[in-house]
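Researcher: For the record, we're logging two predictions in this thread. I'll number them. Prediction 1 follows.
Model: Prediction 1, sequence and structure:
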Amino acid sequence: MFRAVLTGSLLLISSTVWAFQFPIEMIEGIDGARVVININKQDLDDDPRWIPFESAPPITIAGALDIVQSHLAKNPALKDAILRDIQLRRIPHHENNWHYMVVIQTSRDGSPVLHYYAVLMSGKLITAIREPESYK
């Protein structure tokens, strides 16, 4: 009986481990910085495809900025943020998946602080992580 319970438990645990999917990691350069964006495969699968010159993108620049602005409004530390850059970019190795890369600037102790976001065509906002300077 113990062996059956142990075997069943191991099967349950191992199936849970195998079901976990690691995110897709993108490394991009923007404004002299290297940033890392982790996208869940399911988010990428659910993301609308866009083929340039055939139609307008599913989300416009204004739509992407509205999404970022909603995020900023929820975080008091980002209330005085200004837009530094926004670019429409293809997701590497996914020909018809695109995103907006958005750079926002705040100030801390008089020094500029940059924040990086990816906005998928589905409207999902993903915070990007800047690589430390020592990795350059």
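Researcher: Logged. Prediction 2.
Model: Prediction 2, sequence and structure:
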Amino acid sequence: MGPAHRGRVAAGRGFASDRMALEPVHQGLQALAGGIGMVPGTLNLLLDLPFVGFLPFYVTEADLGVTVWTDHAPARKGLSIGRALIAGRYRGLILRGDEPDYPANQVEIACEVRLREHLGLADGDRLDFRLVDSFR
């Protein structure tokens, strides 16, 4: 398990819920998560420091076979993705866009549960995650 990354929950633009509900996207993320289904939507986390972790997977819209982000992030070619343990107990994926203006300290978290509900999170609340190779 990697070192802890910590940050504050931030409001997003709301694009991920609809896009992650698309069957090819849902199936692709589930495959990367080792068969674990991810709840549609992501939680934006603004880290205390720029993100320097290694995200071993890279996915393009061509890989998914469907338009996911070109309408709102036209400079993005793909997403880097890695597995993570969030708040010490929830399995999820860390996602980062590769567009030039993607904030160095931002990650998006896809998870097996709705983190805002399960942890009672509001914008500004602190959250941590650790990158993992697999979920055991």
